[in-house]
Amino acid sequence: MLLYLFVCTAIPQQIFLVPLFFLWAKLGLTDSLFGLIGIYVALFSPFATLLLRSYMMALPREFEEAARTEGAGELRILFSVVLPLTLPGFLTVALVSGLMAWNEFLFAITFIQDDALKPVTTSFLAFKGQFTQDWGLTSAGALFVIAPVIILFLFMQKKFVEGLAAGGLK
What we know:
The protein is an all-alpha fold. The chain is built from seven helices and no strands. Helix 1 (2-10) packs across helix 3 (33-57), helix 4 packs antiparallel against helix 5 and helix 5 packs antiparallel against helix 7 (135-167). The two termini are 31 Å apart. This is ABC transporter, permease protein. It holds the Pfam family BPD_transp_1. One of its GO terms (cellular component) is plasma membrane. Residues 1-156 form the ABC transmembrane type-1 domain. It is a multi-pass membrane protein.
């Protein structure tokens, strides 16, 4: 399974573009957010799985053993010990996967044709003419793309530190 996940992350995503477009066109998933979300899940889940697995493998097993010796069942251990300890890992996976989806351009511009459905990163194409580039609008658009990411990271960074610090105390 690990070999499969490593191979999935090593293969360039552009290889799947043309066959996936024909498949999505036959299924009627082009120009829909549901189709694009399905592509993002397929593209980013191998890396997210590897990242979360490496985080969970580093968790100390002594917490689970201590809960077992005190008589906790498997579900109680899962919800009271393991999930609180893995919360920073889940937040990291969510942040990294969200950033990868936020910054993805190629699949969004290929599969979404309706301007109302296009992600914000594809709006940079509207500021480019045949022989000109409006750098003022491009810079303003870059601020709109970067600002939510920075704000989200600043809020999430505090949660990461709190989760890591409190993880050993639970």
